[in-house]
Amino acid sequence: MKDLKDRCRVLTLVILAILVAILGFYGLVKPVSNGCDMTYMYPTYIPISSPQNVSSGKYGLYLYHEGWKKIDFADHLKKLNGVPVLFIPGNGGSYKQVRSLGAESDRAYQGGPLERTFYQEASLTPEEGGLEMDVAGLQLPSQYSRRLDWFAVDLEGEHSAMDGRILEEHAEYVVYAIHRILDQYKESRDARAREGAATSGSLPKSVILVGHSMGGFVARAAIVHPHLRKSAVETVLTLSSPHQSPPLALQPSLGHYFARVNEEWRKGYEVRTNQAGHQVSDPALSKVVVVSITGGINDYQVRSKLESLEGIVPSAHGFMITSTSMKNVWLSMEHQVILWCNQLVVQVSHTLLSLIDSKTGQPYDDTRKRLAIFTKMLRSGIAQSFNQMKQSQKSTQSSLFPTMGERGSQGHMLPECPANVQWSNDGLERDLYIQTKTVTVLAMDGRRRWLDIQKLGSDGRNHFILVTNLAPCSGVRLHLWTERGKLPSNFPVDKRVQEVTSKMVHIPSGPAPRQIEPGGQTEQPPPSAVFMLGPKDMHGFRFLTISVAPRPSISGRPPPAASMAVGQFFNPEEGQKEFSPLMLFSSSYSHKDIFLKEDHPIAFNLSFGISLGLLPATLSLKTVGCGIKDSGLPVEEAGLCKLRCFPPVALAWDVTAGLHVIPNFYVQTIAVDSAPALWSSTQESDKTIILLLVDPHCSYKSSITISFTAAASRFLLLYSSQIIALCFAVIFFALMCQAHAWDLNSPIPSMLRAVQSNLRMPFPALPLIVVPISVALLLSLLIDQSVPPISFILISTLCYLLANGFMIVFVSISQLVFYVAAVMQIFIKTRWQLGERVELFHHFTNLSSGFFSLKVVRFVAANSSLVIATVASTFVCLVHPALGLFILVLLHAFCCHGALCSFFTASFRSHTRRMDFSEYKKDVSDRPSHFSVDSDHKSRDSLLGDNYSSSLESARSFADTQLDFFHHRHGLLVLHLLAALMFVPSLAAWWQRVGTGQSFPWLLDSVLCICVILHGICNPKPDSTFFSFPSSSIIRGEMKMYYIYQFAGCYSFLSGLALAPYRVFYAMAVVGFLSLVLNVLQKRSKEKGEAHTKRRKHSHRH
């Protein structure tokens, strides 16, 4: 019964692991629509020559030129007079990927800045210097003073994400390229001076770095390189670049290089003080600003959590922003798409051009000003508007969005609409006095609507929201009044009236409305702006006015095809709806609809108790009524409702990913690029907030279901690194089980049986899970003074169970391969010996015996461990670590195959002798009783029976020993094969560089892999798992591999929780070193004749 439960448990885990893998990969390979426009260009790449006394190696440097006309390269370089920008490609990238940025930058320079809008701007947080820098008052140039000169480094398309050595070489070349670019400007200016041409303007002192993928990290590594000139780089912009850790954290040297560079950055922002506490000098990176742009949920290669600058760059020197929350972009995009997505490339181009000071022709020297420009050009004001609303509420339960921190200073006067876009009050036909809590505008009628705040904002409806497609200032203006009256044209700004139009925030709108039939009414247009006021904003005022411009607007801009605005006084608590994880899971099999009746709040705040980055949900919203009586024609009614109801809008908010706006929301699977249930996660990361903006005139039917395909894909993306490290923990725990069985003088279980036994509840499965997780929680409490959310425990346990499932499949396949190979060899060998080709077999036997009689072969056979260790270590140190590990794996494979063949052969012989002995005993028992036998025959029969019995027991003992040896070696093979597979990406990158003068492997990788090889060489048999120190020695007690494997498994578990699978090599190195120590101690004890090792009393099984 117990075995049946174990098998059912194993089968369940295997099915679950396979199901997660299939659904996850299916979701990842599905095509993704991003909505990006293509960028077109006419590229030309001008090579930048290197001085004769400088060897630039195999890499190259190019200058981008946009234009279809053929140019003279030398003449073009002489005219070089812009602001240098260096593009650094990523993993496997090309220098030609700069073409989209270069082309749009050239068009932006020629076309001028973007058209000014009057929506609310984002502000800097107090941590970012918002109290000292007013972003709203920051004036951007009306015309760009200097163009951008785009350079790009050619890194030969090398896979820098797979090898730390390649990353270091790329950083060194980028340092050279920066110096070469700055020198080129001086050479170009000198050449113009020699020819008598004008040499106005100053030479650039720094280069702006733009890096894609791993190129962003290379840019940061170059900045802290000791050979880089001071102040040579002050601005860095990264696109989908990992900063916290590598996406494939498999190679130890790669993870170590990331950690080293990040530590240098942390030190670079530290303030140096003397013993008296006074500042000695500015931090080394005090002038550097870094902005990280992420691709969002569609970027499968690098998650937003890895692209965060938290803990590396202070808030006053940089921030991370997702493309879904970028102004004028609002799209999530794949890893490569971010380079050519026109919406993003245009915004980035104008942002970099806005950094140039018109007075000096170079980027602003003030760090806060550069950061303010990045904020103004990239961030949206949506989060700020909703956060201000949160601050005005008494209870955090009614918040629409979680706070991101105080935004800017609240004491600044709101800016008014400029005079050139205003219309006079005389142009308003007549005032309208609204008596209901909901106000609707269906046309640009030139009227002003008065709303009594005291009357309409009673009964807890002290918040006001307006959604519209009218542009601020040119289409609509909003004012707060202390009393009703007409505002003269020359009326000064005082406390009686305040314009709040600038509090409107822009949101992306869906497709333009279409006409149902020619000449008929168009559908309701999607909203493009949201306006919100809280009690603090309206405090001290009696009226709110909404002034709509007459149709031919004063600004001269054409009015929208269909104008719309819907406003409402509401209570935020009425729109609160919370969804617990249990409700989400139950929705998958118990479908429940949520009905929103007419006259409902415009804003619905949906709070999900589990992050939609972990468990994406499909949310549907169907219009079921709009105040039209039922005509029996649902299709006609739906068409009529489109004329009355504006398309819903969903705004999803996550702490990590930021804002994600979904216009024209009806049916959508909502997923955010969050990072929940991690060791470093906070309590807020387990929640996702969705704000639904729906028309209050219409009724809706809503439903929520779980998308298991999307959930499996997100699970693999978020926790694949954790599962990889936990696979090592599973194998270490299985080796621990084998070592423990040997210590108990029991048969060594197979790897499959060991993994299965470690899953038994409550012991030993519960301690193996609880102990590492408890250590992680304790470390978080001691170091960060915080505890991860409860989902961290649940997801970590699930990852461990899935790792067991994957390892069961992996071990089963490898064991099946060995069994099939052994059976085939024995079958072929038997058939060969018994077949007709006896002479050929003897000839082959003579040749092989002659070969094995050679001195070299005999030396290798006698010292196989030493030879294998030497050869493998040579490959590890001089060629590549993966090759040395694969040699070790081959040694394990040969030993496993030989042991299994010996086991089958001995078992076959034992079975044959058992049959012979049974026939002999039957023959003796069948003799007639009157048959006389002399004493000689009796003694011979007795001796023959004893020989049969002892021979049978000997064959059994030998077979059991060989099977134990196979199980032991098979465990080492699985462990070291996983270690070798960890280096396969690095091996692929190394193979690409063969013949190009690659350097030796990193010392860290070589040392760790040599220790792994020592583990395989020094622990060839299961009997070398125990040593007892004598009582006279300083160290007393027992040294068992059981405890060593247990420690290694727990450390691997913690490495997985930290998303650093490369750290399992540290555990394997410790195991290898202790195996060497144990082996040396055992040999010394044998030489001294001391019995400090433990031997099994017998090897046969009972």
TrEMBL record:
Residues 80-354 form the GPI inositol-deacylase PGAP1-like alpha/beta domain. It comes from the Eukaryota. It is an enzyme of class 3 (hydrolase). The keyword Endoplasmic reticulum applies. SUPFAM superfamilies: alpha/beta-Hydrolases. Gene3D superfamilies: alpha/beta hydrolase (3.40.50.1820). Keywords: Endoplasmic reticulum, Hydrolase, Membrane, Protein transport, Transmembrane, Transmembrane helix, Transport. It is found in: Endoplasmic reticulum membrane. The chain crosses the membrane at residues 10-29, 723-742, 763-783, 789-822, 856-876, 882-906, 972-990, 1064-1081. Residues 507-526 are annotated as: Disordered. Its EC number is 3.1.-.-. InterPro entries: AB_hydrolase_fold, PGAP1-ab_dom-like. Belongs to the GPI inositol-deacylase family. Involved in inositol deacylation of GPI-anchored proteins which plays important roles in the quality control and ER-associated degradation of GPI-anchored proteins. This is GPI inositol-deacylase. It comes from Rhodamnia argentea.
